Amino acid sequence: MTTPAPQDARESWSSRAGFLMAAIGSAIGLGNIWRFPAVTYENGGGAFIVPYLCALLTAGIPLLILEYTVGRKYRSSPPGATRLLARPAEAIGWWQVVICVVVAAYYAAILAWAVRYTGFSVNQAWGDDPEGFLFTDFLKVSEEPGTVSTFVPGVAWPLVAVWVVVLAILVLGVKRGIEKANMVFIPMLVAFFLVLVVRALTLDGAAEGLNALFTPDWSALSHGSVWVAAYGQIFFSLSVGFGIMITYASYLHRRSDLTGSALVAGFANSSFEILAGVAVFSTLGFMAGQAGVGVDEVTSSGVGLAFVAFPQIISEMPMGAFFGVLFFVSLVIAGLTSLISIVQVIVAAVEDRAGLRRTPAVLLVGGGIAVISVALFSNDSGLHFLDVADHFINQYGIVLAGLALVVTVSWVLRRLPALQANADATSAFGLGVWWRLCLGVITPLVLTWMMVDSLNSEFSENYGGYSTSFLLWSGWGVAAGALLLGVVLSLLPWRANRERPAVAEANEANEASEGSR
């Protein structure tokens, strides 16, 4: 039996900048580009910035600091860190790991679409009917959800390519792989998106699009749904709730500034979202002007925005091919940095749990998820599987896991004061009572409110018009299965000495004596 490497031999980031780039890369993903603009537009326009900033300051950044602190203090993946918090809490960590498996499988498929659309942009392969091209010609979507009859090689090969890139980066490790990749990808993404923004702002109709996005509807602030939307956007866009930041923070030096890092990552993510809103709505304003309709008639989000609306715009605008390539390459880069962080959670858990070295752990984890990903999403029901899994694992997986972690730490274990002291000891400024108030009261109440609101909508009508039977096994079943599997994995014994509380105690002792790096 191979004895796992000691905790002190754990990899680490080479610098604070490297950690920040990785954290920002994880946070900036597809949701920033295709979700935030539409959510803002539908929830009061410019007025939405008020609840959005409130959500960032009272839930987003406090949750980031909590996950950073737990990860750095216990220097382990989510299962190991939560196990050191309290033995029963380990189930939460494994729950987060299983959620990452589900998300990674379908997230990679969206990146594969973006890879193909980068090439399609050159000659506008979608022709005069981008919607028909996407669903019929490219994805070959079946009329009956869940019925698999056709293999789609046009999705399979770029999906395999995406996984090869991700696994190659992960095999290189935290410092040589993840950190170096993000140090290249994030500046590249920002540069590409700035070019997109400048190009979008010069289009006819850009002003109308920006007016539609930012003109405030102050009456919207009286609606509870607007505040729920703000907290939901912050929660989903910052990569909190499913173990990523716990994992990334476990590679921090023990004297790292946690509160300052959380503020930088949080505001960097929000700044990019606003930048994405400017680019998207400037472009939608151009589309509305070309069609002679209002901006509200061309507004969309998600798959419809990226793979239907934007191809139509690309076909109509000057220098469309250039714009299209930049847009889809930006999608690929944003998604790739997020996918790397998601898979790293699983890899770290397997390394810690089984004592495997990095390369075998990456190949075992990544190879397994890649096979699942290709099998599920390279067929004519792939879009249906993706749509339902994404909805249910986000609404009833990530949110619930995040709620469970916050309630366990703040209410059950009452660890917030100790964790605050740990963060304050090495951070630029103290957290104060506001942090404990946010995590102990505001965040749990808001997440519970989000859950109740979502369930009310869920039971009023079937999501997406899908049949109840399809939703039961591909939606509710996936969400419930993630929780059940997390509990089962938490009951399995760890390899020798991986669970010893003495590790955490030694880390705390070292924190008191180790100099700042």
From TrEMBL:
The keyword Disulfide bond does not apply. It comes from the Bacteria. Its main location: membrane. Pfam families: SNF. CDD domains: SLC6sbd_u1 (cd10334). Keywords: Membrane, Transmembrane, Transmembrane helix, Transport. The chain crosses the membrane at residues 17-36, 48-70, 91-115, 155-174, 181-201, 226-251, 263-288, 321-349, 361-378, 393-413, 433-452, 472-492. It is found in: Membrane. It is a multi-pass membrane protein. The keyword Transmembrane helix applies. NCBIfam families: Na_transp. This is Sodium-dependent transporter. It comes from Streptomyces millisiae.
